[in-house]
Structures are given as structure tokens and as C-alpha cells.
């Protein structure tokens, strides 16, 4: 079985210090959180950026500063900026980090009810536009799917040439408005992707660790972090993203799955070698 790629989604756009005081907003806090995750075994950082007051932004310069600082602190780590941003942002606002030519970026594959009156909008044309941009710039998309229908969309746009093989999916499970977080739902998604595709699973809240266990056993990969879950166990806040990564590492070790280094993760995902 391939080694396990652990992604840390350290920050998100919605989670606040009110939910967990360790949620990072400033550049220094982002570096601190990325470093705890990297030292614990994460080979990839899924990154949103915020202004110092916690307001989400997709500002290119903010991304540049945070990405450079994380790259310096965590040599070799794969940095995967979000093109999802936050609800209500325009496409071009969301795409700014692609101008920095990251190795990877997220590509959200459908529209989602996001609670209350909020809609996370990704029309077919938006997905095509983002896919085309990533092909032009040699960025490997992580295909964020919040439901089975979004896998169908990704496969359709793959056939039309907007997404290249081998595809890499992120099953984001248990989001209000998306698919649930049960093992049955996981198997449904997992059985719906092409045989040459890779996947990671990001379970929201209480679904995070059970779905991590399922992916570890299945040969998939795992995403954890404050974007998805702020608790280490029921009622116990994680002190850092690193604590969540360390828990996944312990589970993987117990289940006999080795952890991928960043360069091994690049190989598994078919990314070009970097230092
Ligand atoms: N913050 C959500 C609206 C992504 O990073 O691509 C979108 C999101 C997905 O987090
Ligand atoms: Zn995200």
C-alpha cells in the first residue's frame, strides 16, 4: 500500500478563535500552526489566509507572504492554496493564489448550500474556468467534492479536457448541505472515482477521525485540521493542528501504514520534484 499523505488544513475561512483560540490569523500564527503539523507528519498544508483580525481574504500578496514564510519554516512541504476562499467572493478574487504558481490548488466541483442563506457557488463555467487556469499554469488540482454529484461533474469536465488525469479528489464529508459522514457514504464516494485516481478524505467535526481510519485502511489519504474540526476528542479542544496530525500518525502506525514525506507525497500525486 502507498504511504499515507497527511494534509493539514490549518486555518479555513470560517472557523474563528472563538471556536478554538489556536486558530491562526496572522502570518506568524499560520507559520506556527503549519510547523506543528509538519513536525507531526503532515506533508501538505491546505491554506486559506486571513487578515490579522480574522477576515478571510484571497489577496495574492497575503498568500505570497504566508506561503513564503511556511516554505521557509517547513522545508519541502507541499503548499496547496485554496481557490474556494469564502462564500461570496468572485471567481477572479478566488483565483489569485494561482498567479503564484503553487504546485497544487483546490478546485471545487459544485455548488453547495452552506447554511442559512449562504450558497458556495461553483457553476459549471466556473469549474471549467478554474480547471483551464490550472492546466495553463501546471497546477495540479485537488478536486473538492462535497457530494457524489460533484464527482460526476469532475469526470464530465475531465472528458472535455478541463481536468487532467490522474485526478486527485478530496472527499469533504459531513458539511451542512453536502454528503454525510458515514462509512456507507465514504464507500459510495470511494467507489465512484477512476481506478488511477488518488483521494484524501476530510471529515467535518466528529467525522474527522473515523473517516481518517477508513482511508488509512483503504489506502487513501487523510486531511485533518482546524478548517474541518477543532476538537482532539469529544469536548477537548486541540491545542494545535499538530495534535490532530499526531493522532492520525498514531492511528496509521497502529494500522501498519507508513507516513509519506513531502517528496514521497509528490511522487504519489505525480507532482514535479522540488527541493
Ligand atoms: N471556505 C469554503 C467556502 C476550498 O478551500 O477550496 C470553501 C473551501 C473549499 O474551503
Ligand atoms: Zn479550504
Q: Any idea of the CATH topology?
A: TIM Barrel
The SS-based structural class is alpha/beta
Give me the count of strands: 14
Bound molecules: (5S)-5-amino-3-OXO-hexanoic acid, zinc ion
Q: Segments where pLDDT lies below 50 for 5+ residues?
A: none
Radius of gyration over all CA atoms, rounded? 17 Å
Written as H for each helix and E for each strand, in order along the chain, the element string is EHEEEHEHEEEHEHEHEHEEEHH
Spatially, the strands of the biggest sheet line up as 5-2-1-12-11-10-9-6
Major sheet size, sense and barrel closure: 8 strands, parallel
CATH architectural designation: Alpha-Beta Barrel
Helicity, as a percent range: 25-40%
Provide an overview of this structure.
The protein has 275 residues and is of the alpha/beta class. It has one domain: Aldolase class I (TIM Barrel, Alpha-Beta Barrel). 36% of the residues lie in helices and 19% in strands. The chain has helices at 27-40, 60-73, 91-94, 124-137, 148-159, 183-190, 208-218, 241-254, 262-269, and strands at residues 6-9, 44-47, 49-50, 56-57, 78-81, 104-108, 112-113, 119-120, 140-145, 168-173, 198-203, 221-224, 231-233, 236-237. Helix 7 packs across helix 8. The longest helix is centred in the N-terminal third of the chain and has 14 residues, at 27-40. 50% of the residues are buried. The model has no long low-confidence stretch (mean pLDDT 97). Zinc ion (ZN) binds at residues 9, 12, 46, 48, 82, 84, 227.
